[in-house]
């Protein structure tokens, strides 16, 4: 069983109310068992919603209370991202998930790099909040750019 960011399969759950449909991933998943979800929606955030970025760290730091997730109006939305990560982990455990393919650069789903908290498109190394929690629980998290390297 594989967890997959819903936006990557065409669900309009992105912060701006749109999606990140990835046709190659959609084709790749045919015949495989997977669950689609959006950690930010699971955390209680609406769609559309204000864009958010992690400030002063990454997803690991958010889980440790050392960093926050702020939206572009500087409102603290950390609790929604933590709740979404927790709900995502519950689903992963329920279905004995070992792998996930999530949206690159997202404050929830980024697995290699995330936006740096300045809302100017700059990136920093690190993972999103949901990815950090999944990895802490032994789940391999990939993104739409590297999944073929690890999943056949």
Quick overview:
The chain has 152 residues and is of the alpha/beta class.
Describe this structure in words.
This protein has 152 residues and is of the alpha/beta class. It has one domain. Helix content is 26%, strand content 20%. The chain contains 5 helices and 8 strands; from the N terminus they run βαβαβαβαβββαβ. It has helices spanning 23-28, 39-42, 59-63, 78-94, 129-136; strands spanning 2-5, 34-37, 52-55, 68-71, 99-102, 113-115, 123-125, 140-143. The strands form 3 sheets. The protein has a 4-stranded parallel sheet with strand order 2-1-5-8. β1, α1 (23-28) and β2 form a beta-alpha-beta unit. The longest helix is centred in the middle third of the chain and has 17 residues, at 78-94.
